[in-house]
Amino acid sequence: MGKSIYAEHKERRHIVNDIWHISLSGVVLRLLLAAALAGAIGFERGWKQHAAGFRTHILVAIGTASLMLLSIYGFSDLYLDSSNHPADPNAEPNLLADPARLAAQVISGIGFLGAGAILQKKETVIGLTTAASVWIVAVVGLCVGAGFYFCAIVFTALVLAIQIGLSRFESFLMARRKPHKESEAHKA
């Protein structure tokens, strides 16, 4: 004779619950990768002596990776709760929480941290790139925490290419532009 419906449901639930667990080495790997990727972005900011540098970027990425890990793995009992249907052993587990909600709140909160890097001096606003990089490492941390390593690595490489490559290109363009403006001022 086959398994009872209740036993099959329990077995199905056990298989689904295994998806929601992560090993300690998996956690450590994700946090170290988040720190390394954010460190690369933060090093560039720190090298140029901006408000948020190496340590700040690493801390943001580790924090957001930890929150993503907590969001996915810390509340697994809430994600797969079939206790609402104790009389029906065939009931599918209910989703009582959404792991993306915590990540969405993290992105909003990081905006406030990034805003602290933005300053206005006379007619110039400075710190926008640093604020953006803090927000970006939060996204990198969330990607790594969720296990999207390739996405986080490619994203980091793209950010570094933009920060380093476009910075040089921008400096080149500005250097060519300044003499042109001065010559126009002398003509007037």
UniProtKB/TrEMBL annotation:
One of the Pfam families matching this protein, by short name: MgtC
Leader sequence segment: none
Chief site of localization: membrane
Keywords: Cell membrane, Membrane, Transmembrane, Transmembrane helix
The keyword Transmembrane helix is annotated on this UniProt entry: yes
Record-annotated membrane-spanning stretches: 20-42, 54-75, 102-119, 131-164
InterPro entries listed in its UniProt record: MgtC/SapB/SrpB/YhiD_fam, MgtC_SapB_SrpB_YhiD_N
Membrane topology note: Multi-pass membrane protein
The keyword Ribonucleoprotein appears for this protein: no
Domain of life from the UniProt record: Bacteria
One GO cellular component term: plasma membrane
Family indicated by similarity: Belongs to the MgtC/SapB family.
UniProt-listed PANTHER family: MAGNESIUM TRANSPORTER YHID-RELATED (PTHR33778:SF1), PROTEIN MGTC (PTHR33778)
Protein name: MgtC/SapB family protein
Taxon lineage: Bacteria, Bacillati, Bacillota, Bacilli, Bacillales
